C-alpha cells in the first residue's frame, strides 16, 4: 500500500512524535537514549534542520523542529532507520522499533510554536517522571542542554525564546524561562487556555487563518491523510477554494470582480452551477466566496431563476 504523502516545504515547523512498537520502551537505558540523541544531532547537521526542542520519554519522543530545506521525510527516515540499526546491532535483535508512522504536526511559526516548545519541555513533568523542581536535571531533554550551555549548533532558541515574553538567550533570560515553566506547570487553567491537549493532535497547530491558507495550498496532500474533526471542514473548503480558483481563472475573473458585480450576475450563477456540479461546496460557502448574498438560499434562488429563464434547446 502506498504511503500517504507528507506536507513538506522549506521553512516548515513541526511537532514530531513517535512511540515504541506496541508502546514498548525505546529508551529504557541511558545507552539507548544517548544513541538516539546522537542520531538526532547527526541528522540535524546532515539535513540542515533547526532543532528547537526535544524530549526523550521512556517509550516515545517529542521533537519541535524546523526544516529549512523542506526535507522532513528524508531526515526522519534516516533518523529512525539509523537508530534502529544501531539499537538492534547493540542488542543483537531484529524487528521494528517504532509504532507505525510518526506524527508530524505542522505548527505556525511564532507564539504558537513557542508554546509547543514549552509543551515538549514540560512533557516529563506532565507524565509524572520528574517534578517541576527537578526538570532541569532531566537528562534527555533540550531544556537541560539549554540551561547548561551544552548544545550542538543545530539546537537553537533565538526565535521561540523571544516569543515567550521577549526572553533572551542569557542567564537572566533562562532564569525567567524557568520561572515561566514552573508557573505554567502549576496552572492547569493556563494550560487549558493554551489548549495544551491539542498540541499533539491533528494535522496543523495555529490560527484559523493560517490553517486555512495551509489547507488551501496543500489540499491534494491532505486529501490522502483521512483527516478528522475540524480538519475535515478545513480540507473541504480548501478543495472548494482550489476548484473556484480554477474556474475564475478560466473565466478571466477574480473574487474582487465578483464582490463588485451584481449578486445575480450571470457569470457568477454559471460558476455556482459548476461548483455545485463538480464539488460538494455548500450554497452558503458559494454565496460568501462569490458575493451572491448573505445566505445560501440566495444561490438557490438565483440558480433556479436562471434555469427557468434559460432558452430551451429546440
Second CATH tier, the architecture of the largest domain? 2-Layer Sandwich
Order of helices and strands: EHEEHEHHHHHEHHHHHHH
Structural class by sheet pairing and helices: alpha+beta
- The name of the CATH topology of the largest domain is Alpha-Beta Plaits
What is the average of the pLDDT values?
89
Radius of gyration: 25 Å
The major sheet is characterized as:
5 strands, mixed
Overall 3D shape: elongated
Features:
5 strands, five-stranded mixed sheet, about 325 residues, 14 helices
Structural account:
The protein has helices at residues 30-47, 72-91, 111-126, 142-148, 158-162, 171-186, 188-193, 208-217, 219-223, 230-251, 255-260, 266-278, 283-289, 296-309; strands at 12-19, 50-56, 60-67, 103-107, 204-205. The chain is of the alpha+beta class and 314 residues long. The N and C termini lie far apart (52 Å). It is built from 14 helices and five strands. The chain has two domains: 12-206, Alpha-Beta Plaits (2-Layer Sandwich); 220-309, no CATH class. Helix 1 packs antiparallel against helix 2, helix 10 packs across helix 12 (266-278) and helix 12 packs across helix 14 (296-309).
What does the secondary structure layout of this molecule look like, with pairings?
Blueprint: E1 12-19, H1 30-47, E2 50-56, E3 60-67, H2 72-91, E4 103-107, H3 111-126, H4 142-148, H5 158-162, H6 171-186, H7 188-193, E5 204-205, H8 208-217, H9 219-223, H10 230-251, H11 255-260, H12 266-278, H13 283-289, H14 296-309
Parallel strand pairs: 4-5
Antiparallel strand pairs: 1-3, 1-4, 2-3
Helix pairs in contact: 1-2, 8-10, 10-12, 12-14, 13-14
Amino acid at each position: 500500500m502506498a504511503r500517504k504523502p507528507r506536507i513538506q516545504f522549506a521553512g516548515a515547523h513541526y511537532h514530531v512524535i513517535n512511540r515504541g512498537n506496541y508502546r514498548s520502551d525505546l529508551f529504557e537505558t541511558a545507552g539507548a537514549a544517548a544513541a538516539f540523541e546522537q542520531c538526532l544531532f547527526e541528522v540535524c547537521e546532515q539535513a540542515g534542520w533547526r532543532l528547537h526542542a526535544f524530549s526523550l520519554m521512556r517509550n516515545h519522543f517529542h521533537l519541535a523542529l524546523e526544516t529549512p530545506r523542506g526535507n522532513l521525510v528524508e531526515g526522519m527516515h534516516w533518523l529512525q532507520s539509523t537508530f534502529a540499526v544501531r539499537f538492534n546491532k547493540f542488542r543483537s535483535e531484529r524487528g521494528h522499533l517504532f509504532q507505525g508512522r510518526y506524527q508530524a504536526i505542522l505548527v505556525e511559526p511564532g507564539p504558537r510554536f513557542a508554546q509547543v516548545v514549552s509543551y515538549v519541555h514540560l512533557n516529563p513533568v506532565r507524565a509524572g517522571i520528574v517534578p517541576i523542581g527537578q526538570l532541569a536535571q532531566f537528562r534527555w531533554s533540550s531544556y537541560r542542554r539549554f540551561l547548561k550551555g551544552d548544545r550542538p549548533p543545530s539546537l537553537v532558541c533565538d526565535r521561540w525564546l523571544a516569543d515567550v515574553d521577549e526572553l533572551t538567550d542569557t542567564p537572566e533570560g533562562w532564569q525567567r524561562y524557568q520561572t515561566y515553566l514552573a508557573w505554567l506547570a502549576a496552572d492547569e487553567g493556563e494550560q487549558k487556555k493554551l489548549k495544551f491537549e491539542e498540541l499533539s493532535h491533528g494535522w496543523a497547530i495555529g490560527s484559523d487563518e493560517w490553517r486555512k491558507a495551509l489547507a488551501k495550498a496543500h489540499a491534494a496532500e491532505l486529501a490522502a491523510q483521512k483527516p478528522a474533526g475540524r480538519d475535515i471542514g478545513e480540507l473541504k473548503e480548501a478543495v472548494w477554494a482550489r476548484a473556484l480558483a480554477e474556474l475564475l481563472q478560466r473565466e478571466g475573473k477574480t473574487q474582487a470582480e465578483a464582490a463588485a458585480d451584481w449578486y445575480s450576475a450571470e457569470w457568477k450563477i454559471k460558476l455556482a452551477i459548476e461548483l455545485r456540479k463538480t464539488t460538494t461546496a455548500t450554497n452558503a460557502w458559494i454565496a460568501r466566496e462569490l458575493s451572491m448574498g448573505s445566505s445560501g438560499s440566495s444561490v438557490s434562488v438565483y440558480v433556479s431563476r436562471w434555469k427557468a429563464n434559460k432558452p430551451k434547446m429546440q
